């Protein structure tokens, strides 16, 4: 069944497999961004583009698994595995949900928060992340009984979906957030970086009894 794989040397198979895996990971954000991008095409075309991205993602992912093999995937899972009762999927899923909720919030009400030239609102936006994000993450760590030595991995897994997807929201800022002033893109990008920095920092600062 896998006779075509014999045409690749182990080194070539690994390189091609990693390349296909990267392409697969890129197709999902692209599929999510298509509805928000202003293009001179019909909705039917956009729906078709989403389907193409999803199918391409599935095909490239399956092909990468065949080329990389089970041992490679075990190595990857060993690197990101959170021991105990936790699972990598929980923190990745939680990160995606929080990213989605935050994106919807900014899309609906961001114009009241990201106002160019309003210093106090900018300070409030940054201060809000500084307080709320650690509260959320430390609560998740405690909920899943994350060991101190595993907090870094959990924090990275939580931040990863948003960091990947927000590359698209920043790149297509005016299309994703037409309710925001174009001049707010710098403040918004800085706010994102600040949030991810705070989130990752919780991986290094151990849980305290007050949490």
TrEMBL record:
<feature type="transmembrane region" description="Helical">
    <location>
        <begin position="152"/>
        <end position="174"/>
    </location>
</feature>
<feature type="transmembrane region" description="Helical">
    <location>
        <begin position="49"/>
        <end position="69"/>
    </location>
</feature>
<protein>
    <submittedName>
        <fullName>Uncharacterized protein</fullName>
    </submittedName>
</protein>
<dbReference type="Pfam" id="PF17329">
    <property type="entry name" value="DUF5367"/>
</dbReference>
<keyword id="KW-1133">Transmembrane helix</keyword>
<keyword id="KW-0812">Transmembrane</keyword>
<feature type="transmembrane region" description="Helical">
    <location>
        <begin position="120"/>
        <end position="140"/>
    </location>
</feature>
<feature type="transmembrane region" description="Helical">
    <location>
        <begin position="16"/>
        <end position="37"/>
    </location>
</feature>
<dbReference type="InterPro" id="IPR020509">
    <property type="entry name" value="Uncharacterised_YnzE"/>
</dbReference>
<feature type="transmembrane region" description="Helical">
    <location>
        <begin position="186"/>
        <end position="205"/>
    </location>
</feature>
<keyword id="KW-0472">Membrane</keyword>
<feature type="transmembrane region" description="Helical">
    <location>
        <begin position="90"/>
        <end position="114"/>
    </location>
</feature>
């Amino acid at each position: 069944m896998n006779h075509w794989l014999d045409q690749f040397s182990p080194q070539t198979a690994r390189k091609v497999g990693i390349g296909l895996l990267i392409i697969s990971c890129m197709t999902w954000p692209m599929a999510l961004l298509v509805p928000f991008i202003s293009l001179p095409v019909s909705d039917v075309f956009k729906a078709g583009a989403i389907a193409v991205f999803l199918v391409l993602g599935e095909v490239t992912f399956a092909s990468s698994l065949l080329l990389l093999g089970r041992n490679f995937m075990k190595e990857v899972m060993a690197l990101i595995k959170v021991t105990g009762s936790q699972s990598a999927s929980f923190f990745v899923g939680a990160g995606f949900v929080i990213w989605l909720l935050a994106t919807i919030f900014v899309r609906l009400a961001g114009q009241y928060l990201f106002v160019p030239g309003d210093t106090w609102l900018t300070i409030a936006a940054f201060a809000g992340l500084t307080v709320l994000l650690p509260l959320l993450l430390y609560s998740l760590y405690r909920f899943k009984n994350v060991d101190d030595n595993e907090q870094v991995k959990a924090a990275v897994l939580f931040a990863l979906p948003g960091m990947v997807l927000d590359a698209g929201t920043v790149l297509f800022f005016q299309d994703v957030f037409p309710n925001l002033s174009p001049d707010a893109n710098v403040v918004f990008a800085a706010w994102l970086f600040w949030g991810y920095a705070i989130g990752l920092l919780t991986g290094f600062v151990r849980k305290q009894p007050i949490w």
